[in-house]
Amino acid sequence: AQKITQTQPGMFVQEKEAVTLDCTYDTSDQSYGLFWYKQPSSGEMIFLIYQGSYDEQNATEGRYSLNFQKARKSANLVISASQLGDSAMYFCAMRRWDGGATNKLIFGTGTLLAVQP
Amino acid sequence: GAVVSQHPSRVICKSGTSVKIECRSLDFQATTMFWYRQFPKQSLMLMATSNEGSKATYEQGVEKDKFLINHASLTLSTLTVTSAHPEDSSFYICSAIRPPGAPYNEQFFGPGTRLTVL
């Protein structure tokens, strides 16, 4: 069975510092995709970054980077130079690729990040 | 990026009534949409996959007669919570996949609908 695990229910970080949010996954699929989403208190899910299982380089999007360690089945999100607006819930998710018929996402339990001034 | 809207954003209803939630893809056609449910301080749980022109596919444990899904067009899917009860109170979020060619096949999420059943 596929599973996403986020072991940090909550994290504090000082403004302008970097923070790492942990995510491990379990799958027997060879082809899969990993996503990180941000959910502010307003509720909308904001796509941050994507890593494909066959991508050899770690994904980066601005201040976001994904530390992908395939052998360890981890896909940690690194946020550099934290800003107050980064305070939100962060979800790691995995998409199972089944030939394109569906693209279901499995979500972790989330990590609540609080950025302190 | 792609835009997905939901209406209403917030609804309060009496127990026993039915509530319809709309999910629209505003700037693209979506053959597949997804409906999620999120309880407070919990993760998103997939309820069903909505396919344009065919029946929805429900996840295990989701009552299809209670949560009616209709994907009437390539830009609209509706979720109707029938005979709602207080335990149905939750945050309902839809998402849509942009047509082939979009990077990652990522899902674009609507802003969510907060349902409160009294």
List the helices and strands and how they pair.
The complex is a heterodimer of chains A (117) and B (118).
Chain A: E1 3-5, E2 10-14, E3 19-21, E4 24-26, E5 32-39, E6 46-52, E7 60-61, E8 64-69, E9 74-79, E10 88-96, E11 105-107, E12 111-116
Parallel strand pairs in A: 2-12
Antiparallel strand pairs in A: 1-4, 3-9, 5-6, 5-10, 7-8, 8-9, 10-11, 10-12
Chain B: E1 4-7, E2 10-13, E3 19-25, E4 32-38, E5 44-51, E6 57-58, E7 67-73, E8 76-81, E9 90-97, E10 107-109, E11 113-117
Parallel strand pairs in B: 2-11
Antiparallel strand pairs in B: 1-3, 3-8, 4-5, 4-9, 5-6, 7-8, 9-10, 9-11
How would you summarize this macromolecular structure in one to three sentences?
The complex is a heterodimer of chains A (117) and B (118). Helices cover 0% and strands 52% of the residues of chain A.
Write structural notes for this entry.
The complex is a heterodimer of chains A (117) and B (118). Chain A is an all-beta fold. In chain A, the strands form three sheets. In chain A, strands 2, 5, 6, 10, 11 and 12 form a six-stranded mixed β-sheet that branches. Chain B is mainly β and 118 residues long. Chain B is built from no helices and eleven strands. In chain B, strands 2, 4, 5, 6, 9, 10 and 11 form a seven-stranded mixed β-sheet that branches. In chain B, strands 1-3-8-7 form a four-stranded antiparallel β-sheet, with no helix packed on it. The interface between A and B is medium-sized, with 22 and 25 residues.
